[in-house]
Amino acid sequence: MNTEKVDVLVIGAGPAGTVAASIVNKAGFKVKIVEKQKFPRFVIGESLLPRCMEALTDAGFVEAVEAKGFQKKFGAKFVKNGVICDYFFSDQFTDGWNWTWQVPRAEFDKTLADTCETMGIPVHYETTVTDIKFNGSDSITTVEDIEGNQTQIEARFIIDGSGYGRVIPKLFNLDKPSGLPQRKALFTHTVDVKRNLFEEPNRITIVVHKPGVWVWIIPFSSGVTSLGFVGDPDFFAGYEGADDEAKLRSLIAAEPYLSERFKDVEFVFEPRILQAWSSTTNTFHGEGFVLTGNVTEFLDPIFSSGVTLATVSSQNAAKLVIRKLNGEDIDWEKEYTEKVMQGVDVFRSYVNAWYEGTLDTIFFSGTFVPQIKNQICSVLAGYVWDQENPYVKHHDTAIKKLARIIKLGDQINSPV
């Protein structure tokens, strides 16, 4: 069996893995990426947040992504029964990036991986991790390529950015339930030929279809638009008599905001189902490894937190790994897990508030105080580590208190 030696083995060539690999590589360490799938490959999570731009900049990816001409994203629009709540990142409370992109992930992820290769980082596709043995922080990882050839990779440290593959959690039985209710998505890409007939045709839009059920509309610069319904699995049960395409077309017809723009629209691929996506692990690190991105915890597609948590956690992890390899003692719990969980917990509060209807009360109240809206906008931009923002620092209680105040005001002002 062939044997290779590297300083850091990165598992996964998605945004988490490539951001980590690039940052460690720039510090002068030998890095190798192994990826189970062949790229480009389809994956969901197509709406980025401004906070991830800082990680992409740190990794040296922004120029390459900019060259692809992806649709720029300057905010998000929420719609319920014809009422619109608009957020523009230029109004956010936190200093930082005020735009990002809406991206077909197959092309976006391939761009990041290709850029790693131009930096001299080998990326081995269709290569599966079959075994990992640790000896302190050193490790020997056995991988197998598509032709059945096995290689052992000796590494001083492993960064697991394998996403839904969850390599280390599965190998070492670290998975545990996330505690969030399981939800389902039915989605496709559409040839959005009527796009320019409608107001703000290129903006990402979230539509409240029914309580607990929402729709994403994510236009790409190619003229294709990602379209998906998300809700409790029971919601979709009423459409069990037809195939997935008929179900999705029925749902489109039943939502006034969509019905005209997407009537008889061509689907790029047969509608797909994604469900039971929420997951987490018992630990985010161990002697010789760190988990990043979706391997740590994935919440929900609402608010597009996935790529931001993936890239920011990998940015942080890579810098800690560099310090570790340079001989420093790292308090992984304090410097990594607690920081990752701060972002996760903030987003979790907003995810729960969305499905409970708390954010409906706030977003569509018509009585939004500008400063508060700007502070919430920062959360929606991904700046969930800004402790100067009260809607970050007190994320759970602040939004609930605000919703109660709005409801009380509505009661006081309602006609007798």
Tags for this entry?
416 residues, alpha+beta, 8-stranded mixed sheet, 36% helix, 26% strand
Would you tell me the overall average pLDDT? 94
N-end to C-end Cα span: 82 Å
Number of strands: 21
Quaternary structure annotation: single chain
- Please tell me how large the radius of gyration is: 22 Å
Describe the protein:
It is a single chain. The protein has 416 residues and is an alpha+beta fold. It is 36% helix and 26% strand. It is built from 14 helices and 21 strands. The chain has helices spanning 15-26, 51-59, 62-66, 105-118, 167-171, 233-237, 244-254, 256-259, 305-325, 332-356, 358-363, 370-380, 390-393, 395-413, and strands at residues 2-11, 31-34, 71-73, 75-80, 83-88, 100-102, 123-124, 127-135, 138-145, 150-160, 175-176, 184-191, 205-210, 213-219, 224-231, 266-267, 272-275, 279-281, 285-286, 289-291, 297-298. The strands form 4 sheets. Strands 1, 2, 7, 8, 9, 10, 19 and 20 form an 8-stranded mixed sheet that branches. Strands 4, 5, 12, 13, 14, 15, 16 and 17 form an 8-stranded mixed sheet that branches. Helix 1 packs across helix 2 (51-59), helix 1 (15-26) packs parallel to helix 9 and helix 10 packs parallel to helix 14 (395-413). The longest helix is centred in the last third of the chain and has 25 residues, at 332-356.
Brief overview, please?
The protein is an alpha+beta fold and 416 residues long. The chain has 14 helices and 21 strands.
List the helices and strands and how they pair.
Elements: E1 2-11, H1 15-26, E2 31-34, H2 51-59, H3 62-66, E3 71-73, E4 75-80, E5 83-88, E6 100-102, H4 105-118, E7 123-124, E8 127-135, E9 138-145, E10 150-160, H5 167-171, E11 175-176, E12 184-191, E13 205-210, E14 213-219, E15 224-231, H6 233-237, H7 244-254, H8 256-259, E16 266-267, E17 272-275, E18 279-281, E19 285-286, E20 289-291, E21 297-298, H9 305-325, H10 332-356, H11 358-363, H12 370-380, H13 390-393, H14 395-413
Parallel strand pairs: 1-2, 1-10, 2-7, 4-13, 10-20
Antiparallel strand pairs: 3-6, 4-5, 8-9, 9-10, 11-18, 12-15, 12-16, 12-17, 13-14, 14-15, 18-21, 19-20
